Amino acid sequence: MRRFSISPVPLVVATALLAPGQARPNAPFDVVLVVSNSASMRRVDHNRVVPKALNDFGSTLPPGSQLGVVLFGSGGTLVKGLNSATGPDFEAVLAEALHYRTRLSNLSAGVERAIYELRENGRGNAERVILIVSDGRRTVATSAAAEDNTRWLLTGLTDEAKRNGVRIVTAVLGNETDFRRAQSMAFATGGSYFRALAATSLPVLLPKMLASATQAPASGGKQDRPVPAPANVAPSRYPYWPWLSSVTILLVAIAAATLFFHAVFAERLPAISRSGIGP
User: Fold this and answer.
1) 3-class DSSP assignment, residue 26
2) Could you list the residue range(s) of the whole structural domain that residue 250 is in?
3) Looking at per-residue confidence, does 236 or 266 come out higher?
């Protein structure tokens, strides 16, 4: 029997085009990558592998696909509009733009810019996908602004994505963040959610993210796929110590109050008896 050797990364993308249950098996892709440009990303991409990983990913997209890139920090910046997947200078341009020096990390601004690009320049016959790569940390000016951005992200922007047939797939790098936003946003648009400890996982992770986007329609319905388990990630522990501390403090306060009142009334009772007050 003749055997063939096939590179695994293109195979994953090609297999996604034939995935059962997808609405348009031969449709090209319009993909916008939304990547965090915040200073906190240095922890998970200290070797600067993201530009090459994104460039390699673009070269594996099926024929006829388009790729765009949005970087987000204090706002969302389109550094590559939707056009051919990659070009000769794509990696260099991305490496220069992705400096990881932005103090703020406003994911909502990045998602809004990506949806706008897909709405205005996406093709009607293409599968529209946003792939988010971030360390998951949200740093904005105030806590009120953070709550407002989260509300906008999980209601207004996800609704806008669904109206335009856009699936959102998220990859959170690292293990020091709240993963609930990433999950909620992805599942609301029929997308998926992934975790990885570092950016070195992106060459394998990005094709899986794209493949997952073709498994269900962008209807915002309930997702039957389980959340992929992270590799080498310690399970979260419920913080019992604040509850135990509160109970201990309460018991100590009750004991102290009991001793105080006992001492006060023990001294006053003899004096009251001598003054003739009482039966």
Assistant:
1) coil
2) 241-279
3) 266
